[in-house]
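Cross-posting from the modeling subforum.

Setting up a comparison between two proteins and wanted a second pair of eyes on the formatting. Protein 1 (sequence, then structure tokens):
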Amino acid sequence: MEYNTDRTQLHMPEYGRIIQQLVERCKELENKEERDEMAVAIVDFMGQRNPQLRDEENYKHKLWDHLFILADYDLDVTSPYPIPTREQLAEKPKRMEYPKLQGDFKFYGKSILQLIDKAIELEEGEEKEALIEVIANNMKKSYNIYNKEHVTDDVIFRHLKELSDDRLDLTNLESLEKSKIYHNTSRNKNQKGQGQTQNSKNPNRHRNQQNQNRRK
């Protein structure tokens, strides 16, 4: 029996005329069980003829989709996967979002994006303000390390605003040096430094006090 395979061969020539003829033969079988058995055999044969498909994700699913395409979406068999329609396969894939971490932002890393998402979720208050300032300070460190140059705070504020889709805004802050997180860190360092300075001035002070206590 001869089959008209010209139309399908234009779209899926990789399967060849033999597989197309088998598909047409399967469509003509009156017994549903026989059609199901033959459909499984055809899919296995298609996989053997195109072993490169096995490297692709969900290749079995793709083979079954190809079977229905070869059958012009007119094949009554039981498929282990949802049977595709002409309209579904004709749909254009959804446009992928352009990655945020590109160009000026590629060196910030995914952890910064995660922190930004966390800050957006927080309610307005001191905790949120502190986290935003922590994010900005870390962004500045990453920028300086990667680019090996000093970046101005207004650039960081602009990047933060863009990465957060305008939901985190520090443009009202004159500089990161005047942020709460910077002042708290600096104060702790100064206090620690003062304590070390006092001890360095009189390193034997504590030891002398201990000796006096023992004599008493």
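Protein 2 (same layout):
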Amino acid sequence: MSARPLVLLAHGSRRPGPSCLLSRTAERVRTILPEVEVRTGYVELQHPDPATAMEGLVDPVVLPFFLARGYHVLNDVPAAVERHGSGTVTGHLGVEEHLVEAVAQRLHEASAPLGGLAGLDHIVLGAAGSRQGAALEEVEDITHLLGAHLGREVTPAYLSAARPSVRDAVSTARARGARRVGVATYLLAEGRFHRALHSTGADVVAAPIGDHPAVADLVVHRYRELID
């Protein structure tokens, strides 16, 4: 029996930036799972759309390439699989140590010119935000895991739909005496949200984590736990 194909469905962006992180992640996954056909698609704003990404596939494994359990994970991805007529949706990326590893390394890299994490007085986790309570709980959980991993206090903050905003969290940290504030980026891709982090007043803004090797490892883990 041939391996079931894998489709990664991400959000999409009107201005995705100069590089395609999702494609690079898919290439990493292909290296780990050479017997699996791996495709990518977007639920909005970019091509290919879900129908095109799944075209011609029989019983694909479809992974919601999202960090938290928001509307797209709960509604759009399952609806796309239902319209396709076959396939199984895996868990989204969720709360996993793989993501903590990726966020921490990106922050280490970004803070290196200041002497690393020791050069930061406070760390803010910059997340997209959601109106879904479950999604915000997942951000809180990742924040706690990241703080434990780094041995530092980390404040969760959001770019939309939830409070505190990243800008307010940075301002609050400075009001409490922090001279240098770093933003640990909890976003998968370059785009509008990541660009917005650079206008929050932080001294350091980490890169997105979407193409980090640990994220590809998590994708493989989600695939294997579904088919095994």
